[in-house]
Specification:
- The protein is an all-alpha fold.
- It is elongated.
Length: about 90
Amino acid sequence: MAGYGHRTRGRGRTWRRPRTGAGPDRATLALIGVICAVAGLFVLGILLGPVAILCGWLAMGRTWARSRPLQPMIAVILGAVDTVLALIVL
């Protein structure tokens, strides 16, 4: 008879958190990156540029090796442009 804290067989239950809903997916990160990049062209480019680069890079899966969708690439490129323009203005 298994009492409190005693197992009969096996490893018992393994408690794992489900992966669904654990964070923003790649499409959401790409959209956030594009919005930050476009907004960075007008205001706060020094802040929104790096945020757009980071979101675009994370949306690409943190790699440059495989084929990339268009939206994360737009976020990375416009984020870089925002950052460079903001640094020139400073």
